[in-house]
């Protein structure tokens, strides 16, 4: 809720990303699925460890460093 573009990004995710995912047989999580679900999916895929980073100039994206 505190993200400067959070409301807009969530609306776009619900109206476009989620519906496209569902239409193609995906989980329908959209683009705003968050760190928690991303972490869960990485663990289920068998990755041993991962770190989540943000770049100082990019307040919108998380960057994952994934190891086997």
Give an account of the 3D structure:
43% of the residues lie in helices and 25% in strands. It is an alpha+beta fold and 68 residues long. The longest helix has 18 residues. The protein has 2 domains: 32 residues, no CATH class; 36 residues, no CATH class.
* Strand order, sheet with most strands: 1-2
Low-confidence stretches: none
How far from one another are the termini? 33 Å
Helix/strand structural class: alpha+beta
User: What value does the average pLDDT take?
Assistant: 90
Share of helix among residues? 40-55%
List SSEs in N-to-C order. HHEE
Shape: flat
Oligomer: single chain
Query: Helix count?
Result: 2
| Total beta strands | 2
In terms of DSSP E residues, the strand content is 25-35%
Counting structural domains, the number is 2
Q: Rg, please?
A: 13 Å
Q: How many strands, what sense, and barrel or not for the largest sheet?
A: 2 strands, antiparallel
Throw out a few tags for this protein.
two-stranded antiparallel sheet, 68 residues, 2 domains, flat, 2 strands, 43% helix, alpha+beta
């Amino acid at each position: 809720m505190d993200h400067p573009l959070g409301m807009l990004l969530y609306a776009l995710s619900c109206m476009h990303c989620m519906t496209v995912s569902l239409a193609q047989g995906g989980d329908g999580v959209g683009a705003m699925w968050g760190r928690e679900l991303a972490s869960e999916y990485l663990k289920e895929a068998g990755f041993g460890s991962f770190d989540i980073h943000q770049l100082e100039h990019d307040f919108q994206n998380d960057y994952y460093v994934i190891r086997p």
